[in-house]
Amino acid sequence: MARKPVAKAEPAPKSARAPARKGARRTTPSVETLSALPPDRLIGLVLGETERNPAFKKIVSAALAALQGPDAVAAIVDRRLGALEGARGFIDWQKRRAFTADLNATVSVILNELRPLDPGAALDRLVRFLNGAAGVLGRVDDSLGITEGVYERAGEAAIEIAGSLPEAEATRFAARLLALVSGDPDGPLGMLFLDLIPRLPESALPALDADLGEALSDLPAETGDWRSARARGRLLRARQDIADRRGDVDAFIALEEAVAGAAADNLAVAERLLAAGRTDEALERIRRPQQRNANVLSGEALITGRIDTEAPARARTVLTIRILDALGRAEEAQALRWERFCDTLDAEMLRDYLAKLPDFEDDEALRHAFDRAMAFPQPYRALTFLINWPDLDRAGRLVLDRAKTWEGERYEVLAPAAERLEQARPEAAALLYRRLIDDILQRGRTQAYAHAARYLMQLDAIDPASASYRDILRRDHGRKHGFWSLVGGR
């Protein structure tokens, strides 16, 4: 009996097939996807946006003017700069966004349309734009610094363009800029001038230094004029930067003392003396009392707003040690490393100290260092040191020995310490987690309830007594429904 042929399934129509995963990417604007659109469709999109967006309209108009040459683009920019210079009206917060977008469009036109055609003309317009910063920012409600950011963008671009100019043009530009700095020493052009010095060719520095000397002699001698005093300080700093580039240490020192007087930056002076091989002078200088107590800001400090108050002292110690090593006074350098560690539990200082010890002496020294940490009067710093070294066993002992010390509000120390101690010393980790949870709930910090719920979950995994602790939380904080909804009442 002959078999019946098996019917083949008909392929599904294209409309019924699952869409290709790459289909979504075809709707993302890019060179490839936009080139698939008909030109008249693209033109329609551009025209529609010019009607809705005045700043975009200016950019499109400048792009069309660029087809006629740099003069046509420069004319557009000059009209806008003239309007800015003549305006007097106040820009409140409601109009600030559109006004800032217009400013940004002006800078974009200079950079994207004029610069490719004539870099010198673009640089001239940027300088003119920056020179009007005080007048514009003085009439804008810019509490968030958004409008000021446009001027920062323009300043960075001006530095880049000026640094790429031929040597003769860059030198002439610096000299021309100098005349504007004296009138507004704290404005964008003052910063632009200082930032330009490292980019100038070496051969341009002597002439610029002479110009700076003449500009300083032209300033009024009266110290009561704050603007003249600020201009003098700015010009002296510029000469100091030139001296630094030329390796003239004595000129650098003289200018530092001329600017700061008794508050001269001895650290900066000592660094340059050391680099010049004048180590005895460097040691004498770094050991002078420092009247200026400026804090050195790290990137983290700038982001978090927390200032590292110990940074200046540490920088002085590190440089003093470098000088002592250069002088061959190794024992004094080692004593200073140990002193710094004992005072602050500076881990890097301890590592350097141990690395300089003779063989077989580091174990004993490390034991003394850990003893110092366990007895350190600032427990949070001691815990941070032991966690990060790491010595988790001692860190756990420290937590338990000072059990009444820990406060949950110091979560930036306790939370990472608890996580690190979960495996090595679970009883210590449990104590820290309870402190963290208690603090959040007692203060009613609703924004941190999610953290408290996570801490409780981690506590359940390491603490056999967590059920009893949960009962205490129910009794004392049972009405904090936002927290209990996150832990599910487990």
Description:
Residues 8-18 have a biased composition (Low complexity). Residues 1-31 are annotated as: Disordered. Pfam families: DUF6880. The model is unreliable at 1-24 and 300-305 (pLDDT under 50). Among the domains are: 43-244, no CATH class; 377-490. The chain is built from 27 helices and no strands. The protein has helices at residues 31-34, 39-52, 54-66, 70-86, 93-117, 119-131, 133-137, 146-163, 167-181, 188-196, 205-218, 226-245, 249-260, 266-275, 279-286, 299-304, 311-326, 330-344, 347-356, 362-374, 379-388, 392-401, 411-424, 426-443, 449-462, 466-477, 481-487. It is flat, with a radius of gyration of 33 Å.
End-to-end Cα distance: 69 Å
Helix content: 55-70%
Largest sheet: none
Q: What's the number of helices?
A: 27
What is the averaged pLDDT score? 88
In quaternary terms, these chains amount to single chain
Low-pLDDT parts are 1-24, 300-305
Helix-strand makeup class: mainly alpha
Q: What is the tally of beta strands?
A: 0
The Rg value, from CA coordinates, equals 33 Å
- Beta percentage is under 5%
Helix/strand order = HHHHHHHHHHHHHHHHHHHHHHHHHHH
Region (Disordered): 1-31
InterPro entries: DUF6880 (IPR049245)
Pfam families: DUF6880
Biased composition (Low complexity): 8-18
